[in-house]
Fold Penicillin-binding protein 2.
Amino acid sequence: MKEAVNNRAIRERSNKVLTIFLLLVLLVVVFLMSVIHTIQSDRRIPSEHAKIHDRSLRGSIISADGYTLSYSQKTYQAVIRGASIKPEKRELFIKFFSIYSGIPIKAIQERFTDKKGRLITGNIVLSKELNAKSAMQLKELAHKLRKMDVFQWVENGNGVKVLYGLDIIENGESRRFPLKDILSPTLGYVGDRQEGRYIRPQGKKGLERKYEEHITSKKNGYFQGKRDVIGTVIHDKNSMKIKRIDGLDLHLNIPLALQRHIEIMLDAMKTQLDADEIIVGVMKSDTGELLSLASSERFDPSHITQKDIPALNPKFAEYPYEAGSVLKPLTLSIALSHGVITPRTMINTENGKMKIGKFTIRDDDKFESLDAAGIIIHSSNIGSSKISWKLTGKEFRDGLLAFGVARPSGIDLSRDLPGSLKPLYLLNHELHRASTSYGYGMQITFAQLFKAYSAFNNGGIAVTPRIVSYLEDAKGNHYTLEPEVPDLHAIDPKTAQTVHDILIRVVQEGTGVKAKYPGLEIGGKTGTAHIARKGHYLREYHSSFYGFANDKEGNKYTIGVLVIKAKKYRKYFASLSAVPTFRNIVEILVDQNYLKPDPDASEQIATNEMLYQIEENEPSLPETPEDIETVANKPASSQVKPSSSTSKPKNTITDLFKLKEKPQQSQPKPYVEPVQQPLPVKDNNPHKLFEDLF
């Protein structure tokens, strides 16, 4: 009995000891886990060292005359911890923050309370889009507020007391377009690209997209070292600085002054013609340097609205259309190159009407016959068809491909559509070869035709249009990129000169007579083509004029004009829309000293009316590149020089907005035709202003 009692007592003592041991083990485990957790957790104890990040920026886009057209700047956000402000000094903080940030007091007060009107004790974002200047001022304010004892110590979740303050945090990079719609849509626009919590711009269209790889930021920098009690990095021998590497700057061939002159003119012509859009290009014929690439449909890339959506895609290389009669000089060139005709070869033009099966080809001016040159001068569809018939389908198609038809032009924009050309098995048939010879049944872009016509002013070489002159890094080093599509040897120099001379006659005596300018060599070809939709041709038109303007000092420019859907009565004829627009461009080139007419020229053009009307009260622009750099907050390189080899333009940018009337001049002398052409069958003056529909 006594033994049993002793055994039970022993077991009870053993259980107690075991329980105590297990409790001790558990306490030790809990202690160790707490220690490990404390070691691994962020207790927000200020570090002895600090790192200041300096994120790199996207490169700028700069005009040939030194104006910053697009640049990037850093954006910042202001953050405060609600509980860190002493209650009695909250209103003082709000008033000071409003003064420094420009945000109304009421708006700031609303950010300190939740939806139920309770004060927020956690983090409060006071502003997300501060520029560098505002951020710098607010950082100074944060320092002053600490001295004014506005902030109090706050215990964090780990029980550690921290003195929070006003934090100004770099949160992104924004793209700025200080001149609003100028040079759009060529410049393009950007969207947002997220890098963690940091937002960067990303090119979506135009130059911003095309050169994304080169102008995007390269490498972030930082400054690291020991910090003082308020977090400022101490500059000493142990601190380390890594310099950031920004993206390359784009320097354009396009001068802003010339571009703005042309854009204002296009706006006025668009109104006068009631057109949907007018696009033009001016290019050095021998180098491909674009001096202007302008559209009447523009937008502000910084504030894109719903109505801007149709204008976002640059039509220069993204709008294939049926060209019409501007393709006829290409057809003639191919035939001349193959030796199947000469400029004086006579062709029966069937009195202006010819049937091919069930299809009828008509000319507006009815001639029994015309020589090959006259077919271009009087824009005969029948004559152009018969010229194409002297070639095989393969010869004709290969010839068009040599000019760059149905091939990307190589212009440095985000998209460069190839257009279309009928396959060989169709071009072997006379009907298809005929319609293609005068610009129907195929599609081509403005940039492709623009490039093709440069061959007639450049010894047969079609040069690739180039918007960007060079790229520049922070050290001033220049880099050039070869065009993705090279220049094309379209035709031989002799053929190019022959067609060049014929295009001059088109202006002297044919459908382009309104493009004449005294003392300059002007040539080109008109085209007015129906717009097709859902397999049917509409009573809507593309009107175009492609050609060249040269002076005796060696300045040679290829110029293209495309008018889309001019709706004013009879203004859809290219001779009444595209040709006057071309003439206005020549006038601007002369006014800005890019072209210098021969002072000895005796021929004069009567201009009893203004070339175009300019709206009054236009907004003014900066007078100098330096003024605009102040606006941009990022100056262009002092090494930038105008790309034009001509003298400095004589007008300042604000002169563009002054109403300018052309002086009256004497009547032109009658033109003496160098080569006698057959007379029309009917009394139908071939020199009338209204060209044939094609």
User: Anything to note?
Assistant: The chain has two domains: 71-169, 256-301+315-657.
